[in-house]
Amino acid sequence: MITRRQTLQKLALGAPPLVWTAQAFAASFLSLEQAQRALLPQASEFVEQALEPDVAALKAAGLGVPAGYAPKAWLARTGEAFQGWVLLDRVVGKYELIDYAAGFNAQGQVSGVEVLVYRESHGAEIRTPAWRRQFEGRKGPSQIRFGDDIRNISGATLSCQHVTEGVQRLSALVQGLVKAREGR
Predict the structure, then answer these.
(1) Distance separating alpha carbons of residues 123 and 118, to the nearest angstrom
(2) Which residues contact 11 (CB under 8 A, 6 or more apart)?
(3) 49 φ/ψ angles, rounded to the nearest 5 degrees
(4) Which helix (H) or strand (E) covers residue 38, if one does?
(5) Are strands 72-78 and 97-105 parallel, antiparallel or unpaired?
(6) Higher pLDDT, 124 or 43
(7) Looking at the predicted structure, is the pLDDT value of residue 108 above 80?
């Protein structure tokens, strides 16, 4: 009679080693330049603008701010005519980073959201036009609430939530940029 121990020994000695591997997944969908053109197609030029987020103000507004928060901004214009801004940010989906850009018109309303790089193995449905269209026309973080204003996609809950929270933070930053432009 073969014992369980003997069976396990035979399996261990004769079987190929089992290796746990994590499958890496990353899909690049748009370059920054392509996203800028898609978000503010009327603009002919995008000029990088220094952006120093007021983390204390964001936190005071009830917005979570991840460590090392450092979005980038571009001022969009056609000739001398100001068109708006495009901001580039990244958030964690479930485990991996999602690079996305959000466009804002001169009044601070969201003109669109584009996913540039998606690294998760699941949840890329956040790239669907119908989901991203939910952000269009919204102005300020109070109009961009996950579950209330922006609906979830089953199977992509954390990606939906974190991108929504990211756009909410960007919208708060843009409201500050709008006020600064109006004060000129």
Answers:
(1) 9
(2) none
(3) -125, 135
(4) helix 32-39
(5) unpaired
(6) 43
(7) yes
Q: What is the pLDDT of residues 121-176, one digit of tens each?
A: 888 899 999 999 999 999 999 999 999 999 999 999 999 999 999 999 999 999 99
Sign, Cα dihedral of 31, 37, 43, 44: positive
Residue 166, classified by CB atoms within 10 Å of its CB into exposed (0-12), middle (13-18) or buried (19+), is: buried
- Pinpoint the alpha helices (H) of the chain: 4-14, 32-39, 55-60, 129-133, 157-182
Q: Where are the beta strands (DSSP E) in the chain?
A: 27-28, 45-49, 72-78, 81-92, 97-105, 110-118
Q: Can you give the residue ranges of every domain in the chain?
A: 23-182
- Rounded to whole angstroms, what are the CA distances from 41 to 78, 109, 110, 177? 10, 15, 14, 20
Q: Provide the token pair at 111.
A: 């003109």
